[in-house]
Amino acid sequence: MREKEAKHFGLSDAERTEHVCMQVVKANYGPTGGSWWFKKQVIPGWHAIELMPVLLLPKGLANTQSALNRKIIDIVKASPGQLTSRVLRDRYSGTNGPLGVSEQKVRDALHRLVMDGSLILRPPTKAERDKYRLSANSREVLDLPAVRD
Q: Any idea where the domains of the chain sit in the sequence?
């Protein structure tokens, strides 16, 4: 990673050397110019490095997304087993809504939180369906992952 890119993403010089970017320079049947960032991970006991995909965000954008992520996690923590993704987007998105962001931003944040394991999607129990009046069409509810010892 170049120094200019590290500054753009808010990474230190030590972190800068741990990241690699791969770009599509030419694609016959798809878009060109896409780029993906990876972090180098040393494999213990081997003389090899594994490239792990990472999502790097510009400095200012990272702060707003982490605040949105915290708000969403707090909402799910306050009502585990009650909210589906759709209900969360409908009730909490919009510029006048409690989250203050668009439905698309809430959808993207939910996707990231589920993908990184901060939230899980699980089938609702019969008791949750009865208590929270979840319809039969509600196949998954948002919940926090179980804490393992």
A: 3-54, 59-143
